[in-house]
Amino acid sequence: MNRLDEQAVILEMKAVGKESALREMAALAAKQSGRFSEEVLYNVLLERESVGSTGVGNGVAIPHGKIVGLEDILLCFGRSRAGLNFDAVDNRPVHLFVLLLSPADKAAEYLRALAWVSRILKKNENRRQLLNSKSRAEVAALFAAFAEEDK
Prior knowledge:
alpha/beta; Mannitol-specific EII, Chain A; six-stranded mixed beta sheet; 5 helices; 46% helix; globular
C-alpha cells in the first residue's frame, strides 16, 4: 500500500500562500522522485487546482495529480502551523498538506490512495496528532499505522 517516507515530510512549511505551498510541495516531491523536476510537478499540481481547489476543509489540502512515467504512488506531507489561504471549500486556513502523485496508468490505485489519505485526515484525532507531531518520524508513523490497518 502507500508509504510516507520520513524524508518526504516538512514539519514547518515556509509557504505563505497557495502557489508557494504548491511549489514547496512540488520541490519536495521532485527530490523524492529523483526523476521529475520541481517545475514539471508544480505544473501538474497547478493544472489539477484549476479544476477546483484540493483544499478539502478542516485545515486540510490534498494536492494531487497523475504523472506519465512515474512508477509508484508518491506521498509527501507538509505542515503550516500558522495556516495559509488555499481556497479551501470551507474558506478556513490550511495547516496540513498531503501531496499525492500517481502513475498516469494506475487509475484504480490512485483513487484508492486518495480515499486512504482522506480517511486518515477525516479523523479529528489524526489531524490533531499531525499538527502536534514533534518529528518527521512521528508523522510517518501515523501514516504507517494506517497503511498496516488497510492491508
